[in-house]
């Protein structure tokens, strides 16, 4: 199992992991539209402050994560997802561990942050088990289709 840089061809499979608008919103908000757009995903992957990474084993794509450079010392883990075929097998924790190890190699980052929707209990517990703690920061919700979804902010020192 390894963490590798995303290539444009990965977008087709990653977006296939979402079958409903709600699943898509829990993962990435409106970032890539609905239905999800390969073009939007590839365009975002080319931004200088963003790195897309894929957790893979052989030819199998197990998961995806976005690393967003917030500042000289802060990196944000975003749009974390495990391929539905591999959920519940510990790959989420592996994806976080490998991502943090990659970030630590760079040495300038001192803190990793992320946000998770309160209803996404499995993801919250995964992040907590890796040492992320809840912090009192904005935003505390996102609004989708007229509904406010509570959002939890988390961070860990690197």
Quick rundown:
The protein has 158 residues and is an alpha+beta fold. The chain has a domain at 2-111: 3-Layer(aba) Sandwich (Aminopeptidase).
How would you describe what is shown here?
The chain has a domain at 2-111: Gcn5-related N-acetyltransferase (GNAT) (Aminopeptidase, 3-Layer(aba) Sandwich). It is 30% helix and 35% strand. It contains 5 helices and 8 strands. It has helices at residues 10-16, 21-28, 38-45, 91-105, 121-129; strands spanning 2-5, 50-57, 60-69, 74-82, 111-117, 133-135, 141-144, 147-157. Strands 1, 2, 3, 4, 5, 6, 7 and 8 form an 8-stranded mixed sheet that branches. The two termini are 23 Å apart. It comes from Shewanella vaxholmensis. This is GNAT family N-acetyltransferase. One of its GO terms (molecular function) is acyltransferase activity. Its EC number is 2.3.1.-.
> From N to C, what is the helix and strand string?
EHHHEEEHEHEEE
General form: globular
User: Do you know the CATH topology of the domain at 2-111?
Assistant: Aminopeptidase
CATH class of the domain at 2-111: Alpha Beta
Residues in helix, %: 25-40%
Strand content: 35-45%
Helix count, DSSP H or I runs of 4 or more residues: 5
Compute the separation of the termini in Å: 23 Å
Q: Quick one: biggest sheet? A: 8 strands, mixed
């Amino acid at each position: 199992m390894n963490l590798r840089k995303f290539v444009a061809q990965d977008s087709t499979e990653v977006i296939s992991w979402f079958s409903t608008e709600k699943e898509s919103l829990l993962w990435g908000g409106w970032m890539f539209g609905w239905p999800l757009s390969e073009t939007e995903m590839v365009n975002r992957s080319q931004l200088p402050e963003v790195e897309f990474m894929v957790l893979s084993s052989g030819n199998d794509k197990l998961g995806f994560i976005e690393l967003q450079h917030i500042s000289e010392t802060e990196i944000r883990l975003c749009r974390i997802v495990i391929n539905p075929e591999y959920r519940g097998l510990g790959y989420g924790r592996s994806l976080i561990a490998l991502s943090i190890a990659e970030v630590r190699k760079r040495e300038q980052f001192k803190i990793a942050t992320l946000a998770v929707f309160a209803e996404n209990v499995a993801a919250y517990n995964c992040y907590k088990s890796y040492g992320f703690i809840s912090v009192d920061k904005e935003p505390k919700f996102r609004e989708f289709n007229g509904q406010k979804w509570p959002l939890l902010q988390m961070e860990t020192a690197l």
